[in-house]
Every structure is written in structure tokens, then in C-alpha cells.
Amino acid sequence: MNKQGDKYIKTNNIIKLETKINILHKRLNNIHLDYRHKVTTEIVKTKPFRVVMEKLDVTQMLKNKHLSQSVSKQGFYEFKALMKYKCEKNGIKFIEADEWYPSSKTCSKCGYVKSKLSLSERTFICECCGAVIDRDKNASINLSRYEVS
Ligand SMILES: [Zn+2]
Q: Which of 38, 61, 103, 104 is most buried, judging by how many CB atoms fall within 10 Å of its CB?
């Protein structure tokens, strides 16, 4: 139906659908942007003396097909840039932890460092002291103790 000669042309319905999809994408982007603003403002409001974030190699992460979608959707880079900006604006120290700092692999309770920790392990279980803690919480505690060298 939408063939004109040997070329395909967009029907009105397709044009309408494309417009709808574009509007949805814009709305989604706005929702993500709004979320990043809300979260970073909430963090700044707690008046921390400093914020430590990992130096995440986003370009490396984007190469991992399992990670890339969630990484780009969550706008890690934008989140960090916003966090840094709000810290500077509010006189809060912003620190980027070295990308080799084992924030996830280290036990926040005893300091033991695991040699391996797969991304699917969402709970940190220490084979040394037996601590059981949410993976992200464990990493957060370690980052909060990060010492700048
Ligand atoms: Zn431990």
C-alpha cells in the first residue's frame, strides 16, 4: 500500500505513530531528568561533608551489552555531572574514587577483599567474617570511608 514506484513512502498512520513515539521518548527523558534532579537534591539536602562517587568507566560499561542499556537509561554520566555540580554549588567536597578501588569486593565489616564478585551477586557474603549485606550498601559504606591518596 505504501509503495510508490519502487520506493516505500511513509503513510499518514506511520507518521502519526512516529510522532507518538517521539513524544513518549521526550516524556521519558523528562522523567529521567526530573528523577536525577530530585535524587541529587535530596543527597545535597542531607548536608554531607563530602560525596564520594566511583570513577565509572561508562564507555567501557556501554560495551557490555548486558549493562549498556541500563547504564545509558539511568544516565550515569548525567547523574554524576549533576551531583558534582550541586556539591560544588553547596560547598560539599566531591570526590571521585579511583576506578580500581574495590568498593564492591571489600567487606565493610572486616576489610576482607574478595578476589571475585559477579554482577549477579546482589548480596555481599563475607567468607572471612560471615557478614551478609546488600551489595550496594556494602559498596556505599566502603566509599564513605574512601581515603584520598
Ligand atoms: Zn568480612
A: 103
DSSP 123: E
148 CA to middle of ligand 1, Å? 23
* Confidence at residue 71, expressed as pLDDT on a 0 to 100 scale: 67
> How far is ligand 1, taken at its centre, from the CA of residue 110, in Å?
4
CA 76–ligand 1 middle distance (angstroms): 29
Helices (H), the chain: 12-45, 58-63, 65-74, 76-89, 135-144
Instruction: Give me 83's grid cell.
Output: 551531583
pTM: 0.75
Contact residues for 93 (Cβ-Cβ < 8 A; gap 6+): 49, 50, 51, 87
Q: pLDDT by residue (tens digit) across 23-43?
A: 999 999 999 899 999 999 999
Q: Which residues contact 148 (CB under 8 A, 6 or more apart)?
A: 95
Biggest distance spanned by C-alpha atoms of the chain: 74
Instruction: Kindly give the pairing relationship between strand 93-97 and strand 50-54.
Output: parallel
Distance 116 CA to ligand 1 centre (A): 14
